[in-house]
Amino acid sequence: MFLLVIAFGCKSNKTVSVTKTVDTLIKYDRVESLIRKMTLEEKVGQMNLYNGFYDLTGPAPSDGDAAQKYDNIKDGLVGGMLNIRGVDQVRQMQKLAVDNSRLGIPMIFGYDVIHGYKTQSPIPLAESASWDMKAIKKSAAMASREAAASGLNWTFAPMVDISRDPRWGRVMEGAGEDPYLGSMIAKARVEGFQGDDLSDPLTLAACAKHFAGYGFSEGGRDYNSTDISGTTLHNIVMPPFKAAVDAGVATFMNGFNDLNGVPVNASSYLQRDILKGAWGFEGFVVSDWWSIKQTVTHGQSATEEEASMRCVNAGSDMDMESYYYIKHLPKLVRDGKVDEAKITDAARRILNIKFELGLFDDPYKYCNVDREKAEIGSDRNIADARDMAKRSIVLLQNESGLLPLNRTNKKVAVIGPMVSEKNSPLGSWRLASEDGSAVSLQGGLESYKGVDWSFYQGVKLIDKPAAFIFETYINETDRTGIDEAVEAAKSADLVIMALGEHGFQSGEARSRTKLGLPGLQQELLEAVHAVNENIVLVLFNGRPLTLPWAKDNIPTILEAWQLGNESGNAIADVIMGEYNPSGKLPMTFPRSVGQIPSYYNTKSTGRPDQPSDKDLVFWSHYSDETLDPLYAFGHGLSYTTFEYSNLKADKKENGSIEVSVSVANTGGYDGEEVIQLYIKDLYCSLTRPIKELKGFRKTEIKSGRSKSIKFTLTDKELGYFDNDGKWFVETGEYEIMVGGSSDNVIKVKVDTTPVVVVEGK
Ligand code: BGC
């Protein structure tokens, strides 16, 4: 390939404050005049974020940490709080700061609004399976409406960490393994949370986290170190963060991980050079919980002072719960170890966001009891949650066409620990939800009449697992329900099995080494299968699972993740054919844990294929497992079928490539398809992945009709970053692939080498 363009990562063209309207300038002028009045301590105070520390209905705390926090708020030494919620509580806390402190600066109130506030939408990984940016944006907007109505103005979301390791429990909180899809989703979520105007009292400031590389924790063990090459960092990990900046995200959170030897919150390279430098991010960076303190545990900083100095110098603006900044920064400045300009810059960034939120015009702007009553759990929000849940479901296989269910005279046994579960489908990170408030699968199915339903648990859940290292949520010893379930299965026309992980088996610190069905569920599945093979398996899980036996033996498998409050209704809508499934996997499902990391955009290696001499073992493979995944990235079926044809790729004079393809709905149902475009740069100075997603379109195609779909590939899609983060676009031959899954595409080649006109010829 020839080198055509060399450029550095360009500046964001849309950050929090780039739209310098007169209004914005006035706000910033107000910030500057406030900053001029602030003492060093008060500026450091803005950089101090406290967790909720006392029950506001009781007497003020008089000793210990709580008293210190209380006094600091009154003295104007606290920038914001997390985990205080509800209009009354927020109002009281805000009053403490505004009425008592010298300058009356309001606090910002943050909360982990990850997939809903009280009304839970599907977990983010599930929403990502919808590949539906409009729906994802709407879901984030719904979460904002409820949380903002509850007094909050800042969410610690979206988590945009790419991960290739389903052992890592936090994959439930992200958008999966792909940087392109992840970037689109990052944008949709930021725009959904923030709306068009941060000062709208029904929107929240968003926070892209965890900058950067946290999803690459070694061995999938949460909080573990990360060692990531420059090309992987810049091409895979960074794009969703950059997309969040371009979408105008107000804040960033850094991570807990050590990246290539430097704790990320102490990395100037990440925060000053890239984020605030090359990308021009003008919001503020909050540390993760205790992470400033943890630079000492990492073995980088020897003392609390050194930890504070390293992190602030590296560009971490706000300290979540370490109390280090408030304790040490003023002295570090006086001793000449930290430049006061860095403190002023951090305080200015934080104050700017408070202005954007409208808190200086009205510190109680988010505290309106009537709005709180009207918004939280409203009918509109429940309807939005159901719609999002339907779109998140993925039909993994449907071999004998068992779905959609034909209702006439069907006797259906519904079996499994998830059948009547109302808690687990809420998933992890649902802090403000009501326990047990989800519609169970049983509840959803029963609303459909005309079917003879019966329900059996088979294997019980454990309500409160012992709080020790091995948390068991699904019974491993109690077989008492299995016989009854098997008996029911014998006489049923169809069995629906509801199996998977408990909602708390994924999430933060929920890493697992085994990814099969936990507890006795595999035993239950095989026992039922022995008496009735007509099984629809509905999976409830927060991460890809390894289920090779089920894939080979169960005709129909529906991936239903943890879908939030409307879980049972949404699954029933799909089972009954009220909604034709349209989801596609945002993350590869491996066949076994040994295949991890498992992802579609791998490199070729020098020995990718089995030699024609079958006795030769010297090629890149495992001797006890195939290379193909259980289900590939982008996979997902419909009740109808789609056929792809007529793929064309034309090079244009401006260097772009125009791609067109025909997609026909050849089945008996109307349906939505996610048309996916992948490229392979065939020969390149730095090896490129065998396939990279560079475009997709979700569209409805009526049965018997077809659509022509067009994509344009520009330098933005064709280029790549080298190990130093420099951007290159090379000309030459590309393979263009389009299909309904990363492992089911049609291909065409196109050469982008400019034609050299030789005179006289
Ligand atoms: C998590 C963050 C979260 C924070 C505040 C940390 O443990 O890593 O993602 O926002 O807690 O709850």
Topology:
Layout: E1 2-8, H1 22-37, H2 40-46, E2 48-51, H3 64-74, E3 80-82, H4 87-100, E4 108-111, H5 124-128, H6 133-149, E5 154-155, H7 179-194, E6 207-211, H8 230-246, E7 251-254, E8 258-259, E9 262-263, H9 268-278, E10 284-286, H10 294-297, H11 304-314, E11 319-320, H12 324-334, H13 340-356, H14 369-375, H15 379-392, E12 394-398, E13 411-415, H16 441-446, E14 452-456, H17 482-490, E15 494-500, H18 521-531, E16 535-540, H19 548-553, E17 556-559, H20 567-575, E18 642-651, E19 657-665, E20 671-681, E21 692-701, E22 706-713, H21 715-718, E23 720-721, E24 726-731, E25 733-741, E26 744-751
Parallel strand pairs: 2-3, 2-11, 3-4, 4-5, 6-7, 7-10, 13-14, 13-15, 15-16, 16-17
Antiparallel strand pairs: 1-24, 8-9, 12-17, 18-19, 19-22, 20-21, 20-25, 23-24, 25-26
The structure holds beta-D-glucopyranose (BGC).
Residues 82, 112, 156, 209, 288-289, 508 line the site of beta-D-glucopyranose.
Any overview of this molecule?
By secondary structure, the chain is α/β, with parallel strands linked by helices. 29% of the residues lie in helices and 19% in strands. The strands form 7 sheets. It has a 6-stranded mixed beta sheet. A 5-stranded parallel beta sheet has the order 5-4-3-2-11. Strands 21-20-25-26 form a 4-stranded antiparallel beta sheet. The longest helix has 17 residues, at 133-149. The chain is globular and about 75 Å long. Mean pLDDT is 94; it is low at 1-19. Beta-D-glucopyranose binds at residues 82, 112, 156, 209, 288-289, 508.
